[in-house]
Design a protein that fits this description.
Blueprint: H1 2-27, E1 40-69, E2 80-93, E3 96-110, E4 113-132, E5 145-166, E6 169-186, E7 191-192, E8 195-209, E9 214-229, E10 233-242, E11 251-278
Length: about 290
């Protein structure tokens, strides 16, 4: 009899513990993983490298004056004058160098999708030396004009559209307005036809959130600032030659009066890495 009572008591105790454990397992809440919130205003800085391409085009024309002088500088005969037929001006070079600057933007997140706006301003050390000439390939000749090119600064105002490949990994495409100051000059003329100009840009990038505020990013941009047109310029060049025997002492002088107008179209490739600080609240938690 005593054994039956003991067994019954033990069984009842075990059943009560099992019911309590089941009840506790039902009432314990399950916490979902914390989701990162990308929505908010952010600011940051970046550094990178740019390599571009400039293409020159224009026309050159004018007059050429040819004279022959006796020893002592007396003209042999009146000078001959001929026109310099209009000729195309062509040239190209590849400005490259470091860039750096800052950005500010705002993101709106809907589930795994993100839209945003971003503006940035960049200093640039992209530069190159080139030449203007009247033959494709710029073969050495009397119409070869040395030129210098430099991208001083640029900025963009772009939209961003992306998807969260993971809660803290954003992949995005971007595009919009570009603007900048491109300087081009030919010291021998002298002439400068650089200016501030607007154009467009497109690109893509990725951004990784480190915590609720800090993130790092890398992106590529293609930028087209359009054509920088220069004002027409004029130049005078003089070439003097001494004649060999049997005309020793005689000299010839060729004076060219040249008029030119030309411009430069500039496109650029940009890669850069940066860091952003987001003024958003704490990460969102879902239960």
């Amino acid at each position: 009899m005593i054994r039956i009572v003991v067994v019954t008591a033990v069984a009842g105790s075990l059943l009560a513990q099992g019911a309590l454990a089941a009840d506790l397992s039902i009432k314990t809440p399950t916490i979902a993983p914390v989701a990162y919130n990308w929505t908010g205003l952010y600011i940051g800085g970046n550094v990178g490298y740019g390599w571009g391409h400039e293409r020159d085009d224009g026309t050159l024309s004018g007059l050429s004056l040819f004279e022959v002088f006796f020893p002592g500088g007396v003209p042999v005969e009146p000078p001959s004058v001929r026109g310099i037929a209009p000729q195309p001006i062509v040239g190209s070079s590849n400005p490259s160098g470091m860039i750096g600057g800052g950005q500010v933007g705002y993101n709106w997140q809907w589930q795994n999708w993100l839209l945003g706006l971003e503006a940035d301003i960049q200093g640039s050390d992209q530069r190159a030396d080139g030449a203007l000439c009247s033959a494709t390939g710029c073969a050495t000749g009397p119409l070869l004009i040395n030129a210098n090119y430099r991208l001083d600064w640029f900025g963009t105002f772009r939209g961003r559209a992306g998807i969260l490949a993971a809660p803290q990994l954003l992949l995005y495409a971007t595009g919009g307005l570009a603007y900048g100051h491109f300087d081009a000059n030919a010291p021998s003329l002298p002439s400068s036809w650089g200016a501030t100009h607007t154009g467009w840009t497109v690109g893509a990038g990725g951004e990784v959130a480190l915590d609720s505020h800090w993130s790092i990013k890398a992106e590529y941009l293609y930028m087209d600032l359009g054509r920088f047109a220069g004002a027409p310029v004029s130049a005078t060049t003089t070439v003097t030659n001494s004649l060999p025997p049997p005309n020793s002492g005689f000299t010839t002088v060729t004076t060219n009066f040249v008029n030119a107008s030309f411009g430069t179209r500039f496109t650029d490739n940009i890669v850069r890495v940066g860091v952003n600080y987001r003024f958003s609240g704490p990460p969102l938690a879902k239960y």
